[in-house]
From TrEMBL:
Pfam families attached to this UniProt entry: Adap_comp_sub
Family listed: Belongs to the adaptor complexes medium subunit family.
Species this protein is from: Gossypium darwinii
This protein's name: MHD domain-containing protein
Compartments, as annotated in UniProt: Endomembrane system
Keywords recorded for this protein, A-Z: Membrane, Protein transport, Transport
Keyword Transport: yes
CDD domains documented for this protein: AP-4_Mu4_Cterm
Highest taxon above the source species: Eukaryota
InterPro entries cross-referenced by the UniProt entry: Adaptor_comp_med_subunit, AP2_Mu_C_sf, Clathrin_mu, MHD
PROSITE patterns the UniProt entry points to: MHD
UniProt domain MHD: residue ranges: 60-327
UniProt GO BP: intracellular protein transport; vesicle-mediated transport
Any single Gene Ontology cellular-component annotation: clathrin adaptor complex
Length: 328
């Protein structure tokens, strides 16, 4: 599959990472501040390159930790969650010379498994934490000596990018978006679709590249759209070849609800229930600096080679839709 989406292609373009003065940003939580105590990575920087050089051509000492979560949710027609799952990865990109040891601390209240018994089998359970992972696995470089005690991972990272830890979670979590869809007949050979989406995350978080798609009855010949007055950065389309409605939102701010109305025209009488011949609504999105599992990197320690050695540290979060579907 090929894509020409500029937002997607940004993640493959190598350029200077953005460093923003902390005074210009609202607090993002304790796990977001790892930049020499004074600067942090802005939310949009999850798509930026991690390679940069100091003046004079010297490679900058830096390390990146990305917590990437891909979520799958199926909503019933009445809005209840039928299934939900998170596939997560803690990804590390290390550009440190001399391969110093790294210590990565996760939530102390983290539990793994649903009641396993082996202390050395990391599908087993430890306590009843607020964050419960079904299972996880670790990169071969990770030492788990202190994991049972304080949920700390120790490793000497290889150069470049690698997954420190992969995990899966089916514990109930709050989905980032709530979708509501209503279809009503509107006279002879016509119907109206009202599609509402609300962002259930904080207002200081913004999702991007949000796309909703909805299959329409195969006898749909035309669709006209009505957006909210004054909105910008939204685009609608009717894909006549495959009878599909598409709604693109460039940005979606937390706590906000958006509505789309679509008037459908059909080529034949409605002999069947149009609700059974339309949908489901599927959604894709990316939410920087946000994760739904509440898994956190509490601190990132680097073994010092000298008193002046203080590499750049970045911790970034991103949530993406894997399969996000609402039945109608």
């Amino acid at each position: 599959m090929q894509t020409t989406s500029t937002e997607v292609l940004k993640s493959y373009i190598f350029n200077e990472p953005i460093v923003v003065d902390a005074a210009r940003l609202q607090p993002l939580g304790p796990a977001a501040i790892f930049m020499q105590g004074t600067k942090r990575m802005p939310g949009t920087a999850i798509t930026k390159s991690v390679v940069a050089n100091e003046p004079g051509g010297r490679k900058r000492e830096e390390i990146f930790v990305d917590i990437i979560e891909k979520i799958s949710v199926i909503f019933s027609s009445s809005g209840y969650i039928l299934t939900s799952e998170i596939d997560g990865t803690i990804q590390m990109k290390s550009y440190l010379t001399g391969n110093p040891e790294i210590r990565l601390a996760l939530n102390e209240d983290l539990s793994i498994g649903r009641g396993g018994e082996s202390a050395n089998d990391y599908r087993s359970s430890y306590g009843s934490g607020a964050v419960i992972l079904d299972d996880c696995n670790f990169h071969e470089s990770v030492r788990l000596d202190g994991f049972d005690m304080d949920r700390t991972l120790a490793l000497v990272p290889p150069d470049g990018e690698f997954p420190v830890m992969n995990y899966r979670m089916t514990q109930e979590f709050k989905p980032p978006f709530h979708i509501n869809c209503l279809i009503e007949e509107a006279g002879h050979l016509k119907a109206e679709v009202i599609l509402k989406v609300r962002a259930e995350f904080p207002s200081n978080i913004t999702a991007n590249t949000v796309v909703l798609e909805m299959p329409l009855p195969k006898y749909t010949t035309r669709a006209s759209f009505e957006l909210e007055p004054g909105v910008t950065g939204q685009r609608t389309d009717f894909k006549g070849a495959n009878k599909k409605l598409e709604w693109d939102l460039e940005k979606f701010v937390g706590g906000v609800e958006h509505t789309l109305r679509a008037k459908l025209t059909f080529s034949q009488e409605l002999h069947a229930n149009i609700i059974k011949e339309a949908g489901p609504v599927s959604m894709t999105f990316t939410i920087p600096m946000y994760n739904v599992s509440r898994l956190q990197v509490k601190y990132l320690q680097i073994a010092k080679k000298s008193s002046s050695y203080n590499p750049y540290r970045w911790v970034r979060y991103v949530t993406q839709a894997n399969s996000y579907v609402a039945r109608i």
